[in-house]
């Protein structure tokens, strides 16, 4: 419970609320050298408690529904992208060029699942587009690890040198991350107060985010996990991508439950975006810090144009320090922060049993949005919350005291899997791990094909009356 209390209070939550939370520990869930099970339980528990709190607030109830977190459900949800099956087909995990490579003095890990990242990686290495794994391996073997990291990053690709935890703590970015709170929270809004839309008290306990509109500008994986969770709780979630930047199909299927999916060119259709913003309650972004600012999407600018808006941001390395503008993914953060060495060795690096930084940060991001909405219901003002995978990693490595697992054994995910038919086929998928009295058991709709919806809210969605 100590870990949940830390996360809950980091969101500004009342510690007294924790009395209504119970856990079902399961030995063997998310086994690792680091306390991954505790991290996962804390992130999901905090999110469920934030949902229950908002449900009580919108229903006009003083008592917050009880929350129950089962390690089995949490472990299954943290493997959701791996457990997904589409008409019986297993998902594609990592592309051939997304892996560790030996360098002249160490190792680097790259991420090249997206075609544009693969192209940038090869450009940085001075290799042609049809280069093989063997070609890339030979080129990396000629380079020092840090030089390879810098060359690929300068080209807009993704590569990180393998570091120990001690080396990361001594790194300028590691020090910047460690100095920040787990969740950064601000209330910059000074415009006209705007409360939450009214909600039928009979609906609020079931779907605490019903009637709220969430503009989802995120990419794999933490951001989409957060917005998938908000969709579970009843929000109208509209994911918007650039027309030329499709999401990886399997990850879209995993994180698209309950959402609609549209495309919009922010460079040529600013009016279309402003119409969406004018009726939004929440905007969630998952791009590099500052990457969307040129479109007027900096948090302060968004809240100035839409008073009362909740803006949530997630990034790999944080919006500070020398790596603030760098791209990153869970696997790379594990490598940079020493997690890979801890879970394996410097010679044979390992990995966490799940993309726990992505999933954990995703549930914390959803929790931060829910708490911000609860706070807005009292004062009508907007909020800005920000998380980073690297800061969640710091909590895992330096902030959680490992406790031996107790309880019934985790016997696998089967009890927390379901099958759903939809436009993408028959999907086997993980059930949501959030559980509070009266809360939803599943998403309102299966995922739709990427970019198949119009870029507008249900019912027209103009700002009038909202």
How is this structure best described in words?
- With 466 residues, this protein is α/β, with parallel strands linked by helices.
- The chain contains 17 helices and 17 strands.
- The protein has helices spanning 2-10, 36-59, 71-78, 80-83, 115-124, 133-141, 145-154, 165-170, 172-178, 222-232, 249-255, 270-277, 299-305, 330-336, 339-343, 356-379, 389-399, and strands spanning 21-24, 26-27, 67-70, 85-86, 100-102, 107-110, 159-161, 184-186, 213-217, 236-241, 259-263, 282-285, 310-315, 383-388, 408-409, 417-422, 425-430.
- Strands 8-14-13-12-9-10-11 form a seven-stranded mixed sheet, sandwiched between helices. The protein has a three-stranded antiparallel sheet with strand order 4-17-16.
- A hairpin with a 2-residue loop joins strand 16 (417-422) and strand 17 (425-430).
- Helix 16 (356-379) packs across helix 17.
- It starts with a helix and ends in a 36-residue tail after the last strand.
- Mean pLDDT is 95; it is low at 461-466.
């Amino acid at each position: 419970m100590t870990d949940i209390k830390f996360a809950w209070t980091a969101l500004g939550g009342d510690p007294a609320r924790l009395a209504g939370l119970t856990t079902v520990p399961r030995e063997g869930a998310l086994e690792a050298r680091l306390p991954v099970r505790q991290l996962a339980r804390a992130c999901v528990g905090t999110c469920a408690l934030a949902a229950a709190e908002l449900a009580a607030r919108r229903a006009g109830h003083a008592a917050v529904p009880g929350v129950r977190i089962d390690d089995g459900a949490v472990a299954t949800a943290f493997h959701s992208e791996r457990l997904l099956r589409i008409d019986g087909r297993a998902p594609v995990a990592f592309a051939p060029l997304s892996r560790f490579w030996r360098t002249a003095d160490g190792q680097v890990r790259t991420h090249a699942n997206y075609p544009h990242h693969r192209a940038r990686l090869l450009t940085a290495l001075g290799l042609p587009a049809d280069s093989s794994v063997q070609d890339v391996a030979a080129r990396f073997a000629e380079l020092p690890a840090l030089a390879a990291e810098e060359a690929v990053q300068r080209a807009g690709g993704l590569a990180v040198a393998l570091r120990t935890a001690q080396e990361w703590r001594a790194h300028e970015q590691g020090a910047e991350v460690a100095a920040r709170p787990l969740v950064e929270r601000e209330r910059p809004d000074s415009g006209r107060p705007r409360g939450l839309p009214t909600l039928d008290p009979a609906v609020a306990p079931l779907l605490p985010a019903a009637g709220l509109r969430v503009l989802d500008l995120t990419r794999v994986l933490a951001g989409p996990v957060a917005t998938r969770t908000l969709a579970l709780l009843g929000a109208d979630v509209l994911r918007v991508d650039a027309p030329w930047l499709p999401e990886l199909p399997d990850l879209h299927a995993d994180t698209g439950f309950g959402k609609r999916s549209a495309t919009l060119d922010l460079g040529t259709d600013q009016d279309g975006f402003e119409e969406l913003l004018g009726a939004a309650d929440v905007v969630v972004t998952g791009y590099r810090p500052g990457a969307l600012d040129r479109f007027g999407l900096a948090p302060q600018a968004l809240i100035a144009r839409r008073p009362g808006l909740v803006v949530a941001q997630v990034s790999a390395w944080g919006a500070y320090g020398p790596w603030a503008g760098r791209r990153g993914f869970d696997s790379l953060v594990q490598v940079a922060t020493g997690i890979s060495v801890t879970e394996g060795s410097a010679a044979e690096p390992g990995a966490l049993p799940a993309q726990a930084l992505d999933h954990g940060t995703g549930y914390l991001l959803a929790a931060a949005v829910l708490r911000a909405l609860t706070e807005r219901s009292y004062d009508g003002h907007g909020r800005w919350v920000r998380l980073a995978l690297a800061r969640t990693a710091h909590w895992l490595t330096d902030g959680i005291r490992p406790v031996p697992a107790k309880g019934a054994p985790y016997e696998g995910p089967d009890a927390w899997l379901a099958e759903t038919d939809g436009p993408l086929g028959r999907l086997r998928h993980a059930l949501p791990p959030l559980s509070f009295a009266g809360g939803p058991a599943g998403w309102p709709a299966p995922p739709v094909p990427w970019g198949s919806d119009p870029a507008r809210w249900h019912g027209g969605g103009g700002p009038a009356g909202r």
